[in-house]
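Give me structure tokens for this 300-residue protein.
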Amino acid sequence: VMRRLRQTGRRDAPSTGPGGGAAPAAETDGEIVAVNGTLPACPPDHVESILSRYGQVSTVKAKVAEHGFASFEADLARLREFRRLCPDTTLRLDANAGYTPAEAVEVCSAFADFDLQYFEQPVPEVEQLAELREELARRGLPIVIAADESIRKAEDPLRVAELGAAEVIIVKVQPLGGIGAALDVISTSGLPAVVSSALESSVGLAAGAELAARLPRTDRSRDILGDRVACGLGTGRLFTADVVAEDEALTPIDGTIAVKRIVPDPDRLQQLAVDPGRYEWWAGRLQNCWNALRGSTELG
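Here you go.
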């Protein structure tokens, strides 16, 4: 990722304010960002209770392929129950690259009946995504393909656009190197983007919210994603604790979060501190990342 961004853009981190808090830009501070609910793999009779945690949301992302193609029938049953409960809610699917190309074609034929906004990363490789799109078009299946792992885990995050492998890209601030770097990927790819979480605390979610507020609004994006893009930043509800005070946590209220400055709470930081061995491991990892970034900049 960093090698390609040397050629096309910049690398940065979210802006910070006093005390280390992530500070939004003046033009985005206070904006409201729509977020999607998440429906994990679960029995159909759990769907309603899980969705109730999110309140009123306009969009839900359902996880599929937990065990690859072996989960197909269970996924179908869960999606049927979802559509029974939420006939008008926008639905996205995310397979986390869980299918082979042949399996992906088969499941797309069935999933097309659920009126999807997009299907995220059904197969692992960029080339497979491109071939899948061609096959879906040949069969007349109107399914939009989105790329996630092929963006954030790829050495070249722009190859998806170059091969026409997806119509939507999923961007995550931290894996791409910061808000500015993520905006560069979005701008250079020319594809509609959805901001998603990499399972961060509210500090990381604040950076994601700012990026979401700065997404380009294009006709192409509106055609696929609507006027208000629901982003995958509602993951604060998945955690039992956060590094900020409870009333400051970026947990969604009826499908939205606010763009705002986040400052970690010292007492929470102390309560959630890792053991010394784990601290040293993370400190070493951060040092290695810094060395790699510094070397990348010098080479560029």
